[in-house]
Amino acid sequence: MDNKKRVLIVGSGILGNTLAYWLSGIPKINVTVIEKEADTSLHTTSRNTGMIHRPFYMNPEKKAVLAKSASISYHLWKSFAHNFNMPWNEVGTLEVAKTELQVKTLEKYSKWAIQNGIDEKDMALLNREEVKKLERKVSAPGGILSKTDTSTDYGAISGKICEINRKNGVTYLFNTRVEHIYDQKQFIEYSVNGSKQPDKINYDLIINAAGNRSIDLAHQVGIHKDLSILYFRGEYWKLDDDLKGFVEHNIYSVADNPEFPFLDPHLILRPDGSLEIGPNAVPVGGPYSYREGTLRNFEISPLFKRPLLPKVSLFFNSQFLNLAMTEWESSISQRKMIQRINSFIPGMDYRRARTRGFSGIRGSLIDKNGFIPETIVAKTDTSIHILNYNSPGATGAPYFSYLVMKSLQQNGFLVEGQIGSTFSNNIWKNVNEFEYGPELKLF
Ligand SMILES: Cc1cc2nc3c(=O)[nH]c(=O)nc-3n(C[C@H](O)[C@H](O)[C@H](O)COP(=O)(O)OP(=O)(O)OC[C@H]3O[C@@H](n4cnc5c(N)ncnc54)[C@H](O)[C@@H]3O)c2cc1C
User: Fold this and answer.
1) Contact of 96 with 126, CB cutoff 8 Å
2) Quick one: CA torsion of 6, 9, 12, 14, rounded to 10 degrees?
3) 303: how many CB neighbours lie within 10 A of its CB?
4) Is the distance from CB of 169 to CB of 31 less than 8 angstroms?
5) Cβ(278) – ligand 1 distance below 6 Å
6) What is the pLDDT of residue 297?
7) Mean pLDDT over each residue of the chain, to the nearest integer
8) 178 lines ligand 1 (CB under 6 A)
């Protein structure tokens, strides 16, 4: 080859694709994305709520990186959707309190919203009457309206970025699974679907963006061997078509168990205006156990993967076990699922949710003290590993990937030259216009 440095990215989800985008704009780098599936973005990127979340509900101190990434990326996705004619339905989200105590949480959210760079005019705190006036089917002691939350199709936009990347010279190897990273010797072993013998590729830098599998690859190079992973299936139920217009905004509620990393099910508007309820968070065996309401696809082996201590500790936590039971019930019965939103949408009849939507799997990292709240970026001299990249990860992908690139440059780690200097058409050349707050460093 030429004198270009070889960067491998594992995973062609929204994270791998946005990373490849920024990297392909830097001179003297050859970017290859390796994806085990036959096409891009077939896993979590296409199996989610599809919301561009404004980060009003995120603690700016504890979740600084994901909150800032989501905040700035909203503007990047907006221009992207406009320029490439992608789904963009700015429906807004009404998040309601279920108790008087939770009204205090909403007041806290309205402060966090401003700290997280959201324009004051895009948010409104509402009392009981104002909630009713906005959404007559909703009954709650208070709410917060985030006017610019947007419904989109992440699978479609990630696919478009993949297309742009290929035009910018990125090589995609589909049907190719990275089996092992040998970081000391700087090569990977991979297998192409159907082949018996694994093959090798050398690299100068490898970026592990393998979603629910990224922790397995990180363990191979000795990173975070103290962390374990648990998988939760988020399921959706579709509401009958004639219910279109039942509500005009997404309706979320304040999470009852904020110490666990998932939100309670909500009523969501898809870009075409159809309504769904979900997701729940059903504990399942493996990263791709998509079959809803059944134990089919249930993989046992990941449950016994080391380290076991974090998982054993959690299975002695009665609050977690009770929650897991509720989630399982709502997986088997749509009645139980709909009951979870009846406390704030009393008129929603469970018989109007007849069909299941798709499901998505969230992998959550745990240590012996419980769930890890933030994304982890870990590195060796020649590899970067992005772990626990969960919601609102799809929202935050363009800016988060930009931060990875900036951190690589600040460390003198491989990349030279101005980001974006080799693009003929830099789709996010306005990225610095939206900067706010202190500069964030990932490593
Ligand atoms: C139920 C649910 C709802 C959500 N809702 C939202 C939302 O509304 N808004 C939002 O912003 N975020 C949401 N999220 C989070 C968001 O979807 C994720 O943060 C994001 O999609 C993660 O993207 P990714 O590229 O890291 O992972 P993925 O899309 O899973 O991509 C990883 C890729 O790596 C590949 N891979 C894995 N191992 C290997 C290997 N060994 N070799 C080669 N390839 C490999 C996989 O095949 C996959 O294509 C939701 C998540 C869930 C589960």
Assistant:
1) no
2) -110
3) 16
4) yes
5) no
6) 53
7) 91
8) yes
